[in-house]
């Protein structure tokens, strides 16, 4: 019986190894959102550049928009940032949701790393994040010309993800 | 030619590692003394050939041989020679070669310094290390060979070393850190050898202790160097970010700290044997896990290496063999007998057990936080960051608790201590701690901050207890107390030194986090900004030219109460190759506070966005780490580890235990 107890560390390790194994084969896959093909939730929030300038979901209308949830406490966002800059340069309209963050730190971040966002709304208490079902940062939503969410991606958007998951939908939307 | 020579040297080293892993191990079971003795020469051989390969790669860097893919990727002909030298470990392949060199180096050191050990033990320890060498060398040769050539299209210029890494700290940080990381393999090997031999006694613990302490000390210094580098080089003003790569080095540190303490109990009192073995296995497993996390791409980090799933599969497989195998041996061989020695609630054993528990719990929370993104990913929730709020919420209270009990534990006695004696001893340090805490809390910040008080009080508590212990021990001896202060054995100085170091680090970490003041402003030439009690006057920028970059350097004069205290010259650099922009922060350090300034964007007309910090006590963090590491080295130097010669002839030690 006492001998059996000594197997506990081994058992824990086997579980951990299985997890790591799964981690290796996993690609940061997009996750179907309950909000897919539904309208972007309503909000009215100030933007980072001017806290008195309130934006709402209606500001998305008319153009395909990539809504990116980010925060300065999110290390992974730093990795994602250069690609967002690239997208913005290519003419993609990128809008930020600064999620549960300190506005000063966020402004400093944008000054330092450059700002890919047309505007970033401040979701300080995470209310909009709650409506969107945000787990953490970064997350990205593709919103069409009518303000309908067409795709949700959890995790870093990079070139591979963009070409594989976003471009087909964008082409389809533009084709209409 | 050089690169090919290096490649061949690696292959030879691999061949020798196979022999090292097999021959002495088999010899130890068959009582073949000759086979066992071969372990020392084989270990030397592995070290010589890995060293040769390393020298070849260094030569390729020095000669800027861009036909070698790795050199072309991480070096540049304009780099100064010392950065060419350190660029060897500036990327995945080379840093792995450095890792293997360290492993071979530790193996060689064990071979040299093991004269007092029974031959069976030496043979098995070196064999286990040889087995580890096989894994790492195979990994390098199969998935990340640093000697691959770019032929026939040899680039005329290299891509350059990442500008972040072009810094003096980078010359020292990785080698010291790897010394620690890899040093834990020696204890791992000792643990496995002990399990195989069934020989888990005080003698075993005494052999293991200096190795554990040495690896721990290197790890301490390596982590401190990394944190200091991040502090002044990254320009974010922070010193610890809970990044997966930092955690990867911190988790083995936590467990090896527990190991160093637990080995002491095993040596002195013969208890906690299984636990000590398990810690030795854990410590090295975590350093392997760190390698896996950093180099496989499962977790995104700001300083992850270029990643490749194939490498991940290999390291995970190796991790499975090493950790799974060793835990299997543990499960089958660890002693199940209860130790006969008993101890009371208020005993040194109990406090050390508490220390171990706290350290392991801290490690587990860090592990959970680090792996959480991965768990979320595996359950289909995507990749996310948990961020510092999670870590701080657990880490800070646990470390404060650890430090508090350290004070009581370090002066308690083996078996049983009287509560009355502890109280007599501790009231003075307690008063000192409370008063110093109040002093700090009232001197800094606008209002009384209880967290500031608590951190300062606990930090000074550790320092005061250690000093009182020293004084008390000196007074208990015959002769003049002052003379006796300098007449203790090395182990005692080591303990006092390391504990005071921890106290200082706690004070530094706590107070600098709570009382830092920061300001982000636009400054035009001639303008000033007030931060805390200091006035920063921006006098404009000038263009400067470095060996491989040009920069704008600001000229800032800092004054306090009208008198000048420092001048700062933060830079914004543009590197020629790749056009990377880098912020070079300027720091004026002193024992009481750091003045820190980093430049942001140029806003036109000579005005710049700048970030200014005044950080009290921040130097204490690294000062404390330095003392901890220094304490570790004092402990290793203690004479009693070398006094012990084998009293029995070697052949007698061969009889099954």
Automatic annotation (TrEMBL), chain A:
Query: InterPro entries given for it?
Result: Periplasmic_diS_OxRdtase_DsbE (IPR004799), Redoxin (IPR013740), Thioredoxin-like_sf (IPR036249), Thioredoxin_domain (IPR013766), Thioredoxin_ResA/DsbE_sf (IPR050553)
What topology does the record note for this protein and the membrane? Single-pass membrane protein
Q: What GO terms in the biological process aspect are recorded for it? A: cytochrome complex assembly
Domain of life of the native organism: Bacteria
Q: Which SUPFAM superfamilies match?
A: Thioredoxin-like
Alphabetized GO MF terms: disulfide oxidoreductase activity
What does the UniProt entry say about where the protein is found? Cell inner membrane
Domain Thioredoxin, chain residue ranges per copy? 34-175
Q: Which key words are in the record?
A: Cytochrome c-type biogenesis, Disulfide bond, Redox-active center
- Cellular component per GO? outer membrane-bounded periplasmic space; plasma membrane
Name the principal localization, coarsely classed: membrane
The UniProt similarity line reads: Belongs to the thioredoxin family. DsbE subfamily.
Question: What is this protein's record name?
Answer: Cytochrome c biogenesis protein CcmG/thiol:disulfide interchange protein DsbE
Origin organism of this chain? Answer: Pseudoteredinibacter isoporae
UniProtKB/TrEMBL annotation, chain B:
Q: Name one GO biological process term.
A: cytochrome complex assembly
Q: Which domain of life is it from?
A: Bacteria
Q: Which GO terms describe its molecular function?
A: heme binding; heme transmembrane transporter activity
* Localization annotation: Cell inner membrane
Q: Which residues form the Cytochrome c assembly protein domain?
A: 89-296
Transmembrane domains' residue ranges: 6-29, 41-62, 96-114, 121-142, 178-198, 210-230, 250-266, 278-306, 312-332, 353-375, 390-411, 423-444, 450-471, 492-515, 617-637
Residue span(s) of domain Cytochrome c-type biogenesis protein CcmF C-terminal = 316-639
Alphabetically list the UniProt keywords: Cell inner membrane, Cell membrane, Cytochrome c-type biogenesis, Membrane, Transmembrane, Transmembrane helix
> Can you list the GO cellular component terms from the UniProt entry?
plasma membrane
Topology in the lipid bilayer: Multi-pass membrane protein
InterPro entries linked: CcmF_C, Cyt_c_assembly, Cyt_c_biogenesis, Cyt_c_biogenesis_CcmF
Question: Tell me, what does this protein do in biology?
Answer: Required for the biogenesis of c-type cytochromes. Possible subunit of a heme lyase.
Cross-referenced PANTHER family: CYTOCHROME C ASSEMBLY PROTEIN-RELATED, CYTOCHROME C-TYPE BIOGENESIS PROTEIN CCMF
As for family, the record states: Belongs to the CcmF/CycK/Ccl1/NrfE/CcsA family.
Q: What is this protein called?
A: Cytochrome c-type biogenesis protein CcmF
Q: What species is given as this protein's source?
A: Pseudoteredinibacter isoporae
